[in-house]
Structures are given as structure tokens and as C-alpha cells.
Amino acid sequence: MSEEILKRRKILIVDDEERMIRFIRLNLEHDGFIVAEAFNGKQALQRLRDSTPDLILLDVMMPDLDGFEVLEMIREITNVPVIMLTAKGEEEDRVHGLEKGADDYITKPFSTKILLARIRTVLRRKHPDHDDNGSIIQIRELVINPQRHEVLVSGKKVELTSTEFRLLHFLTRRPGWVFTRAQLVEAAHGINYPVTDRSIDFQIVGLRKKLGPLGKYIETIRGVGYRFQEGSNLKQ
């Protein structure tokens, strides 16, 4: 995605601290983004129903509905990318956010450069200029349509988070290949993402459950990582 197209993207900021929203808004607008704001979870959901943004920056620590609860409600409405913003830095909180469907996780305080870089990375990943990996993949009863961001198992749609979808797509594009946990973190979140190997294990467990009987084809390679069993058929 070109920089000019990126800069026309709409970002919804959700935070109960007016000073934080003002700081983020100033920097995003300076960089060319269109910005909307919400000061609590209810406002965020209403903004989302009125007009879907290209990305949401969602604070965790908010009154009434916290960010995790809001994220669950967002995922019932749309698959729009969500970056969590929080003062919490514990691994369990990052894992919890990713399991709920977050695309990225930034711990406060953060630099403007880090925030803008993460936003661009998520937007490019969600809206690539040229989708070289857009072919439909069919493996046994599993069908993956990258352009529709859709997964079918035995003809029935399976709802995956953005991270789960990226992991599954990455593994099934190269069936039989063994990937380390570090490679899977990079495939799902980009380079230098601050998540430990254990978070990938959580994601794989959730992915296997959602795939039902086909989940067994995601094999654990002890001491190394994971692979998807061979036997693929690419539909052109």
C-alpha cells in the first residue's frame, strides 16, 4: 500500500483520557490520517455502527466497558484491525488481547514513531497493494480465501481472529514445511513484535479448536515449532 493511500485511512481512537486522545490525534493528523474519537466503549461501538474506520486504536483501562470487552463486541460486528493501547505490559494481558482478536498491542508510554510504524504495518498487512498470496487454498475439507478473509471447513464458515487467519494462511501456503515459533510470530505480527513464543502456542490451540477435526493437521514439531501436514491443492 502506498504512503499516499495510507495517509487517507481513517483511524478511530478509543480512550477515556482526553489528553491522550488529543496527543494521538495531533500526531496522526500531522501524518495525514483521518481521525475519529470515542471516550468510552459505548461511544466506540456507536461510531463503528455509523461509519467503519480502517483501524481502531483501543485503550484497555476504561470505565464501564474495558478494552477487552469492547474488542469482543467489535469482533461481533466487523473484522476491522484493532491495536490495543494500555499501560499493562504483562505477557498474560498481551496474550489475552490477541486471543480476543487484537491485531497488535502497544504498551504506554510509547513513542510517536513506534505508534505510526505499527499502524502502517497493520494497515499494509490488512490492505496490501498487490496480493501475491491471494490464491484460494484447498487442503482436504479446508478452503481458505485470502481476498475474502474467509475460511470454510466442510463448507461451513469458521470465524477466526485476524491473527489466527494469518497463522493458518502462512502454514497452509507451505504445507509440510516446519516453521519456528519466531517465524510464526513474525508472520502474524511483523518483525520485532514483543510477544514470547508461548503466545503462539495459545494461538495454535485456539486455531485447532476452531478447525475441529482438521485441527489435528497442524502438527507440533517438538523443540522446533509447527507445520501443516502435506497434501494440498492450490486452486488458481
Description:
With 236 residues, the protein is α/β, with parallel strands linked by helices. The chain has two domains: 3-126, 3-Layer(aba) Sandwich (Rossmann fold); 136-235, Orthogonal Bundle (Arc Repressor Mutant, subunit A). Helix content is 42%, strand content 22%. A hairpin with a 2-residue loop joins β8 and β9. The longest helix is centred in the middle third of the chain and has 15 residues, at 112-126.
What labels would you give this structure?
single chain; 236 residues; alpha/beta; Rossmann fold; Arc Repressor Mutant, subunit A; 2 domains; 5-stranded parallel beta sheet; 5-stranded antiparallel beta sheet
Query: How many strands in all?
Result: 13
Helix content: 40-55%
* Beta-strand share of residues: 15-25%
> Alpha-carbon distance between the termini?
24 Å
List the helices and strands and how they pair.
Layout (H helix, E strand, L loop, with lengths): L2 H5 L2 E5 L3 H13 L3 E5 L2 H10 L4 E5 L7 H11 L4 E5 L4 H10 L3 E4 L4 H15 L9 E4 L2 E4 L4 E4 L2 E2 L4 H12 L5 E2 H9 L7 H15 L6 E4 L3 E4 L4 E3 L1
Parallel strand pairs: 1-2, 1-3, 3-4, 4-5
Antiparallel strand pairs: 6-7, 6-13, 7-8, 8-9, 10-12, 11-12
Helix pairs in contact: 3-4, 5-9, 7-8, 7-9, 8-9
Please sum up the structure shown.
The chain is α/β, with parallel strands linked by helices. The protein has helices spanning 3-7, 18-30, 41-50, 67-77, 91-100, 112-126, 162-173, 181-189, 197-211, and strands at 10-14, 34-38, 55-59, 82-86, 104-107, 136-139, 142-145, 150-153, 156-157, 179-180, 218-221, 225-228, 233-235.
